[in-house]
Amino acid sequence: MELLLITIINVVALLLPSQLALMSASRLQLIMLRDGGCRYYILQIIEEDDGSECYVFRKWGRVGSEKIGGKKLEEMSKTDAIREFKRLFLEKTGNPWEAWEQKTNFQKQPGRFYPLDIDYGVREAPKRKDMSKMKSSLAPQVLELMMMLFNVETYRAAMMEFEINMAEMPLGKLSKENIQKGFEALTEIQNLLDDTGNQELALRESLIVAASNRFFTLIPSVHPHIIRDKDHLTMKAKMLEALQDIEIASKLVGFDGDNDESLDDKYKKLHCDITPLAHDSEDYKLVEKYLLNTHAPTHKDWSLELEEVYVLDRDGEGNKYSRYKNNLHNKMLLWHGSRLTNFIGILSQGLRIAPPEAPVTGYMFGKGLYFADLVSKSAQYCYVDRKNPTGLMLLSEVALGDMHELKKATPMDKPPRGKHSTKGLGKTVPLESEFVKWRDDVVVPCGKPVPASIRASELLYNEYIVYNTAQVKMQFLLKYSVASLHCCICNGIGELFRSLRPSQQKKIISTCKNHVSSWLYGFVDVAGAAAPRQQGRLHVGMKQDAVNGAAGRAQAENDGDNMASWTSRCRPTLSRQRMNIAEFDVAAVTVPVLDGAGDDHRSYQQG
Q1: 463 is catalytic
Q2: Judgement on whether residues 29 and 169 belong to the same structural domain of the protein
Q3: How far is CA 345 from the centre of its chain?
Q4: 176-194 vs 230-253: helix axis angle to the nearest 10?
Q5: pTM, to two decimals
Q6: Segment 403-450, tens digit of pLDDT
Q7: In the Cβ-directed half-sphere of 87, how many Cα atoms lie within 13 Å?
Q8: Which of the residues 19, 166, 373, 388 has an alpha carbon 20 to 30 A from that of 296?
Q9: CA atoms 342, 345, 346, 350: torsion sign
Q10: Of residues 53, 463, 495, 557, which has the active-site annotation?
């Protein structure tokens, strides 16, 4: 029977009549979060090459289980096959086939299947050419950047980090339509979470479950769950934004393995001139100064090292920006950080605002383009870590005009009349006397961080938001590496967090505790000699952003007496389900003693 199934799948690609080809196959999927299952139903019409016979093929079961399910093949006339296909489609989805075929008025029905876009391409392991050995006319620095951008493993790793079920939605088969519908499902959940008084609790819960079912049907996950809170909602919305850029990259350059284009050809598809800056040029020195000066005081456990700076000129962007450049005052060169996997989309299409169908949750000042004047704030959104320490960041010229200044989160569609942008006022700001002008009228806020004159703000650092993409001109792309990810105790905790399901992450954060018995630890003294390995308790004050792999701080306690805090490079052994750090080795030197976890920390007492 397996041989027959392989033959059937091959025949589908050879369907002759246009009508039959349009309705030849459908993969239906149903996520049932209440019973923890993910069911599928495959429905196909198959026609013989000579048109003599038609078959309706069905296969159903539970994803990941070969024991549950079945299949059926029925021979009938073409007319009867089409009629039976439509009947079964209506029965399983609650919608007529025409609604799906014409992409009109298809509504996901509770407890019914939902069709997925399918691809009959061969999924054999691709034989990829070694791009590094191909001849190129690109500058060596640009060629290295292209190899970094077009590394397919980077995109696979990102999808695995997002817990995408790669068997159900492999890289290269992302659907823009499914991502859009995923946003719509999240917006529906957001509205239900906000509507706490107008519906009965049981009805509201059932609608949240139905919308969660629909979301995970569209975006298959290895850990589907009911999305019941704003934190998980925001996390999934950010994931979809990243998937949008991965989908753009997939369609632009191809990740299917059958794309033998050179890096030069792929570079041309970006429609963005990328020119490396000489390290002794004035612009390079200015960018380097901006990076070195504007590291935020709460991010001192790690540092950034500049490797390359590229000048950007995306096709058409300068023309769109010229109107605002000429008519608005207050232009600044500001930072914007993003995941490495987002940059093919950014370079080819520019910075984009979240789509209308996306939920508004998670945006402090509404949907817009967000920028910072402190480099380390933007670097947090690049999600580099100890294993992948190299990232990319933008410096963009932003026409801010008159700014609507705020001290707390205020979601909005656009700033009030007469204002051209929004500024979230931080409690720490660059020193204004050290600002410089670039190209006569663009302010570069490259002063060292100092306390602001205002103290009542909810924001630690400034944020700048524009709501029109034409107010932005990308000027420089920075390639940098993160150095001194000092405390790998905290890095290890960050890696553990990323390996856990969101519900487990939230539980650990909320309890702020985890206990390990018999903790062994060792230090290296200032001279580099290994200190005696000791047994005792270790208190870790960890910044929230350590969840994303950034560094934290460690303060050791032994026999009740405070010891010096040590900046450490450790190799913790972590179990998946609990913070079972059995032993670590240290290879670093001392730092000043810490008084304890600050306001922006979470305390983890180990003992």
Answers
A1: yes
A2: no
A3: 13
A4: 170
A5: 0.66
A6: 999 999 999 999 999 999 999 999 999 999 999 999 999 999 999 999
A7: 7
A8: 388
A9: negative
A10: 463
